[in-house]
From TrEMBL:
Limits of the Copper type II ascorbate-dependent monooxygenase C-terminal domain: 179-324
Name recorded for this polypeptide: peptidylglycine monooxygenase
Chief location category: secreted
Paired cysteines (S-S): 44-89, 77-109, 203-314, 274-295
Catalytically driven reaction(s): a [peptide]-C-terminal glycine + 2 L-ascorbate + O2 = a [peptide]-C-terminal (2S)-2-hydroxyglycine + 2 monodehydro-L-ascorbate radical + H2O
GO biological process: peptide metabolic process
Signal peptide: 1-20
Subcellular location field: Secreted
Sequence similarity: Belongs to the copper type II ascorbate-dependent monooxygenase family.
InterPro entries linked: Cu2_ascorb_mOase-like_C, Cu2_ascorb_mOase_N, Cu2_ascorb_mOase_N_sf, Cu2_monoox_C, PHM/PAL, PHM/PNGase_F_dom_sf
Binding site for Cu(2+): 70-71, 150, 219, 221, 294
EC number(s) given by UniProt: 1.14.17.3
Amino acid sequence: MTNFLSVIISLSSLILLITANDASNTMDILMPDARAEHVDDYLCTAFKMNENQPTYITAFNPSATSKDAHHILLFGCSEPGSDDEIWNCGEMSHANDHSKQKYRNGPTCKSGTTIIYAWALDADKTELPEDVAFKVGGSTSIKYLVLQVHYANLEKFEAGETDRSGLVLTTSPKPSSKTAGVMLLATDGYMDPHSLEVFEVACEIEQDIVMHPFAFRTHAHKLGLVNSGYRVRGDGDDQEWTEIGRRSPQLPQMFYPTGSDVTIKQGDRVAAVCTMFNSQSRTVEIGSTGNDEMCNFYMMYWVDGDRLLEDDVCTSAGPPSYYFAHDRSLNIDKIPADAFRIPPPPNGPAPGEPVQGGHHMMMQHKTKPHRRYYRQQYVF
């Protein structure tokens, strides 16, 4: 009888252990009562991960409103940009106003920067596919998660309130067989007053890797009409452009499922294009404030195992210095005709809904004689 009871107790303990290991937890990644002092402030705060065992992130649930936050980004860092609880991590450092600046300046990360998640325009929760997770902490290079919030206005702060915008993460201690990562394609450049313009960027995948894109996110400010992302495979007349995702950036900016099963491998190129209409009487540049513009295409992917893309940011000089036509490896005649068109719902505005700039047109592809490439540190 005693042996029988011992077996029952052992089985019960094992069941409890398995249940505990499979259980999902939540992790609050929130601003610790921040107080923005300027419109377009970028504030950061860091969260140290468990170095003894990895954490697997399986979902991102926003805890924010677009009334307060222009956008939110979650970075993985080997070392955060500051030891302060909150620091100013944007280009808007207000260098001439140090006496009134509450937080000290610093980069988002001092080392090991990688983008994990991005949110804007009251986007909904993002859940990863089964057996796919972001792996952080433990022996990975991601020792900290850093939350970055770009503040849109000061109303709540002028009323004496503080801010706890951020993300609630769903996590698990259970290892996943597929590891998630994010690749970002972004441009520099500017657009002339009263003009329709395309911002384009493309990079070759040089690493020996096989990526499976499963979600994408588009980001622009007020002038963006449509952002599109593509896998480009092959050369010359045999080149194929396969759409990864296409969406109006005026819609909630969460990660949306890709429309087709696309695999990206060494030798392929990844390309993105943003169509914008500048209805204003001033030149608009790519920049960090709400009055500037951005052309960003985020590709979320998974790999078997945990070896992710090392060079995960692809940039171009943008217009007027760079267009696809400047890159001899790209056959612009193979670009899908709908690359510059706003898609129908659900990726475009509903019928009868106004579109910023009022243009539903295809952009004639631009060619410019000047060719220039460079990389720089961006604040997204």
